[in-house]
């Protein structure tokens, strides 16, 4: 791999018609060339600025961090060239399908009914796709507000702007496609996943079986919040005096799906729950214990813990498979990149480039 440490001149002397003097105008510079793909320095600098914004990186490490970002861009260029050779195209919809999983997880912390989550996620994705493609759409302030709230949540989680994250996902999908063709990385077997589960079962935590009664305030006023709190405290007093939790859940809970089952939410991992809900439930340990009234993003609750147990294999099988597959692909990808770099004409023009 050729590594020519030269900084390309990024300025050109221009004269303006009628102007009595020369002026300097700065142009973007090429920081690297990968075969026939040019990498622009401003793209690397923008990425570096984002990293600096979200991470506490000392100035002494800026050159090293910028070098690693450039390495990632070089890898992406190699993947893109391989994808072109294999006629691999990753469309917007495929990227959105990946984001859909995160959207459903996000919505499920706010909406208990899985069917409602599916329905709303579908509407949001269809509208988001049109927004990305600048297609004309009818006004829908409520839906746009829900999309913008999700985007804000996502950006805060991944520390990237939405469009940049969108392209990151596209790049990752393309990388997986190239790897599956070029290397033939296959998913792990169930035996491998089960073996990993046995060795790490104690690190995975518990899942809980809980029942709850949910009441939402009639409005956002302090009075509405207080009345809801008082109503649930009154129900809790009845339960502690011996009335059936399940009977009161069927009568008063505003979670229609679980109310019909006496408030039963079934077995859940804490990660599947609303964070505020999960945080409170995690501190309840005695079977049969009824919580104090507490608030989540859904409204006000009282919870009855039925049982607690280690997370079962069935709950985490998909996550384990995904983890093992990614680890295998990462190792194979590193080998593929080294081989591809040796076969490619790569020129780097960055000052102070730090080699790995």
TL;DR of this structure?
This protein is α+β, with helices and mostly antiparallel strands and 356 residues long.
Tag the structure with descriptive keywords.
disordered N terminus; 356 residues; three-stranded antiparallel β-sheet; elongated; alpha+beta
Outline the structure in words.
- This protein is of the alpha+beta class and 356 residues long.
- It is built from twelve helices and nine strands.
- β1 and β2 form a beta hairpin.
- α1 packs across α2, α2 crosses α6 and α3 runs antiparallel to α4.
- The longest helix is centred in the C-terminal third of the chain and has 31 residues.
- The N terminus is likely disordered.
User: Which strands sit side by side, in order, in the main sheet?
Assistant: 6-5-8-7
End-to-end gap? 14 Å
Structural class estimated from helices and strands: alpha+beta
Helix content: 40-55%
For the sheet with most strands, the description reads:
4 strands, antiparallel
Give me the secondary-structure topology.
Blueprint: E1 11-15, E2 22-26, E3 30-34, E4 37-40, H1 41-54, H2 62-85, H3 92-108, H4 114-132, H5 141-158, H6 162-182, H7 190-200, E5 206-215, H8 222-240, H9 245-252, H10 256-259, E6 264-269, H11 275-281, E7 294-295, E8 300-310, H12 313-343, E9 346-348
Antiparallel strand pairs: 1-2, 3-4, 3-9, 5-6, 5-8, 7-8
Helix pairs in contact: 1-2, 2-6, 3-4, 3-6, 4-5, 7-12
